[in-house]
Amino acid sequence: MKNNTTDMTIGNPVKHIIIFAIPSLIGNIFQQVYNIADSIIVGRFVGADALASVGATASITFLFFALCNGIGSGGGIIASQYYGAHDDDKVKNCIVNTGLIMLLIPIIFGIIGFITAPGLLRILSTPENILADSAMYIRFMCVGLLFVSIYNYLASMLRAFGDSKSPLYFLILSTIVNVILDIVLVYFFNMGVMGAAIATVIAQFASAVSCGIYAYKKNPYFKLKRQDFVLSSKMAYKVIRLGVPMSLQFALIAVSSMAVQRIVNSYGTNVVAAFTATNRIEQFIHQPYATLCTSLATYCGQNYGARKMDRVYEGYKKGFLMMFILSVVMIFMMQFFGGAITSLFISDPDVIALGTMGLRTTSLFYLALGTIYVVRGVLTGAGDAFFAMFNGVIEVIGRFTVPIFITQYMGMNEYGIWLSNGIVWVLSGVTAWIRYYKHLHHEIAPKKSTPAISLYNHIASLRSQISRSPSR
Question: For 471, which DSSP code?
Fold first, then answer.
């Protein structure tokens, strides 16, 4: 049962994390290319209004994706723990029950999103000149929600077994399909925002179907037989117990992003376009952190399931070191090349200036952002269901209060939008570390030994040996 899988409970922890992370990082980068292809092609070939139309939908589409994908991620963590414990029957049962849940949820939320799209955009004070295109784009994304959810569920399961390469291949495929169709439909057929939306849905379908076929043919855990399709309320509860808080965490972040988007929209099309560009760029910035988070979650999940706490702690320490190095590199890039990167999305000099300022501001807080991801990965691997939702609540509170306070009461206007992002990362990073220290540190960290403790333990051992020796 070990083909196309990796047992992370043995071997060098850093090697496991890095080898797992490299394909995941490449995959995440392609995921972002896939996500931003619409923005670049629409922004360059159609204009600022079209770019703003796509950007104004980001927080809403993220909300519906988040509500679905958390369950798949939670199921992947449960599967990794059973895999680490070498319980193959429960691994298969987890795959089945998570899969059934993942078929139902995106259909429900897709219908809700399709119906409520115009109303949600009005709540966010979306400018009237882009409202129709934005609503149309959201509705196409709701059609593709089932395909996105299926792909992410399959990818989470494959990664749970240490296979981070296979999901990469299908992301590359879908990215190529998306970019080609974007160019054909937007540039050659002049279909504008609708063309970008159609291209995205077709690419999502391609990734879901191809990944499903591969999983069934190549991964032994997906060789399911009739007797494996057992509905287990206990297994479903475990998946939901971990997955729902993860969904709610991402959903709360999406709601908080909607609150920020409402403030952004109030400053007009140029600020919306600049914020869209910087958001797309920062989605790239998040990827090394997200990759590290995923690697740590899989690594810690397998070792936590095997009860190898020393290896979990080693992963936590090395994760922080890798995060620090990544942060220094990316801060340098944004400080010195932020303007050039922003110009990839738009040619308007005013929008480029705003985007450059935004990137230089938020990059100063990347260490706090990285802390969130490292701690989240370790806690998620250990099955901490509470933290995900708690961290989401903290972010919601921050995003509802900090931007308003900075932009309106401190008079920083649009500059305060980007500054508030960094401040919220600090709040979330601090609370994440506190949660780790209070909940998990005492369980995985090696116990400190002093001379007095060592002497006490030695005396206790001698007494135990004497009590067990036969009387004369």
Answer: P
